[in-house]
Design brief:
It is an enzyme of class 2 (transferase). The chain is α+β, with helices and mostly antiparallel strands. The protein is built from 20 helices and 22 strands.
């Protein structure tokens, strides 16, 4: 706190004038000396003024606003950092309402516009403002009342203050006497060691003994005492050696830390309980270092999901980022770095949330997690650790993805039904009207084909919808029998197609679904693969090497590479003849329902080839 500047009662007011225009500065200084009998020191820059303030005392600063290096407002702010109560008047030739407003906001004492053509009037006004500002400062210029200010601060301080000479208490403020539990008459002149708890008397004597402060600026220790009402308290006291009038004095300050120590004891007592609660939480909890993100603590759930114990973590520390999926690692690290940058800048929110993928130890399964990170601070405000809580989102995201797939299928159903049923219905209605009008019965053949088309679409939609929900009826299924039964449903005597069946395995599958699987592949080949009505189409079903699966291929025109990534999607077709594109979607659904994998390629003859793998890693669990 700035108590003003001490000078004698009859001394003139000391003014520090800051103006980079020497002529104007000289005129102003002369006016202050003439009209105000003031002691004026002139400097030409704020930096020179600051140097002057660091070595000399003044009663008031008078400054111009415009300087080459800075402004009077910035200069004012700098002065306020070291002299918060020193009168500061802005006396400027470059004034405006904005400058005046900014000056007031910055804490200027007064603002006077320097009328260049009315210098006498301006200086006279400045003299009045200086005298008023100095008179209103916290202490008069002669320094009277300074002792009273010091005494008021010491006596009303919320910290216990005391002086000790040769081990005896020679001064104590009211708060320190309250901590000791006695009055001034009982304490002053007594050994300080006799005024504390008996268990701490030797400690106090040692701290106040000769040589204790020879090499240290201050010594801090904790002692116990008892208040007047018999309440035990603990105080933290800091003593510092000073020399007053040739005497060695210990100046001390004491604070009541009873509540803090009780809180620390409660924390130590509750820490095992807190650890037990954290360990049993269903979410993953971790504590990491603030710089390298090395994990220093994980709870039981984290151990189970991660597949690594806390013991092995201590033996082989692992960066938190090593846990994160490689594709998400850089993004997450940038987010964490931004967190600490915000904290350092004082703009951090209460918590930060991140969503990312991670791979548990000794696993190839990718999981999803959401982490909420909160920085932990010490008493100095420095970050000590980062507390994080991770929630496993894998199942939720899988459900969301499955729901999205279902919604896509529903949209495809609606799209196909609205298009592929409305079209045949329109054809049937039109041909029926023509038959009635003309009596030509050949139109009814078109009606029949349209109805067959509608029936086919409805059956495929029902098949796909039912397969989605129905439980599988697993049994040993001979793939050759399923293929043969499906073939009979797909061909007529007029079709120029031929089926070749190689030796096929017997697998555990749903018999009706497998028949439907082959029907859709056969129909797809017959409808899409034939380009010449006279050419025979050959469809072949065989076993993959190592009996890991089987294939269905044809010698037709094949599937363009540009469509192979989307051909299994519902509603996608290689033909532009109104085909509804459900067939291959049903094929993929049946394969996935069995836990298998289907992939598309090209046969040796250039046609389409569909391969079904029972097991994408090892040999298939099949029987001959």
């Amino acid at each position: 706190m700035d108590f003003g500047n001490v000078s004698s009662a009859d001394a003139p007011i000391r003014v520090l004038l800051v103006d980079d225009e020497r002529a104007f500065a000289a005129t102003t200084a002369e006016g202050l000396r003439t009209h105000g009998e003031m002691d004026v020191v002139s400097v030409c820059s704020p930096s020179a003024a600051l140097d002057r303030l660091s070595t000399s005392s003044v009663d008031c600063v008078v400054s111009e606003y415009a300087f080459d290096e800075t402004t009077g407002i910035d200069f004012l702010r700098t002065v306020r950092e070291s002299h918060p109560a020193l009168p500061f008047i802005l006396f400027t030739r470059h004034g405006s309402e904005t400058v005046a407003s900014d000056a007031i906001s910055a804490g200027v004492t007064d603002y006077v516009k320097n009328g260049q053509n009315e210098s006498n009037e301006s200086v006279a006004a400045l003299v009045d403002r200086i005298e008023a500002a100095v008179a209103a400062s916290p202490l008069p210029a002669d320094g009277t009342g300074l002792r009273q200010w010091y005494e008021a601060i010491v006596e009303q301080s919320p910290v216990g203050l005391y002086l000790v000479h040769d081990g005896f208490l020679v001064y104590a403020n009211d708060y320190f006497l309250t901590l000791l539990g006695c009055g001034a008459s009982d304490a002053i002149g007594q050994p300080l060691a006799d005024l504390v708890a008996e268990s701490d008397r030797q400690l106090v004597e040692d701290r106040l003994g000769p040589g204790t402060y020879d090499s240290l600026d201050s010594v801090t220790y904790t002692i116990d005492a008892e208040t007047k009402d018999g309440r035990p308290i603990s105080m933290e006291t800091t003593g510092r050696h000073v020399s007053l009038g040739g005497d060695d004095i210990v100046v001390g300050a004491a604070t009541d830390i009873t509540a803090r120590l009780a809180s620390e004891r409660e924390i130590r007592r509750s820490e095992p309980i807190t650890r037990q609660i954290i360990s049993s939480l269903p979410d993953m909890v971790f504590l990491s270092e603030p710089d390298a993100f090395d994990i220093v603590y994980i709870n039981d759930t984290f151990e189970q999901v991660w597949g690594r114990s806390q013991k092995t973590l201590y033996e082989d520390p692992m960066s938190f980022l090593d846990l994160v999926h490689v594709d998400d690692r850089d993004r997450l690290e940038r987010g964490i770095r931004a967190l600490f940058a915000d904290i350092e800048a004082g703009t951090a929110d209460d918590r930060y949330e991140f969503e990312f993928r991670f791979v548990p130890e000794a696993s190839e399964t990718v999981r999803w997690a959401a982490a909420r990170a909160v920085p932990l601070f010490d008493e100095d405000g420095s970050i000590t650790n980062v507390l994080g809580v991770m929630t496993d989102l894998t199942e939720r995201i899988r459900r969301e993805q499955e729901l999205a797939k279902q919604n896509d299928r529903l949209e495809a159903f609606a799209r196909v039904l609205s298009h592929d049923i409305r079209g045949p219905l329109a054809v049937a209605q039109g041909r029926l009207d023509l038959a009635r009008e003309t009596g030509d019965q050949s139109h009814l053949d078109h009606v029949e084909r349209a109805h067959s088309r509608i029936t086919e679409v409805v059956e495929d939609v029902l098949s796909m919808a039912c397969d989605e929900r129905a439980a599988m009826d697993l049994s040993e299924v001979a793939l050759a029998d399923s293929a043969a039964a499906a073939w009979e449903m797909c061909v007529s005597d007029t079709d120029t197609v031929r089926l070749e069946l190689d030796e096929l395995p017997v697998v555990e599958a749903d018999k009706s679904r497998m028949k439907r699987f082959f029907e859709n592949l056969f129909r797809n080949a017959i409808q899409h693969a034939t380009t010449d009505d006279d050419a025979e189409l050959v469809i072949r079903v065989g076993t993959l090497p190592s009996r890991r699966g089987f294939f269905v291929e044809d010698d037709g025109r094949g599937i363009p590479r540009s469509m192979r990534d989307t051909i299994f999607e519902t509603g996608v077709s290689t033909k532009e003849d109104g085909a509804h594109g459900f067939g291959l979607g049903i094929v993929r659904q049946i394969v996935h329902t069995h836990g298998w994998l289907v992939r598309i390629g090209e046969s040796d003859a250039g046609g389409a080839r569909f391969e079904v793998l029972f097991d994408t890693v090892g040999d298939a669990n099949t029987t001959s």
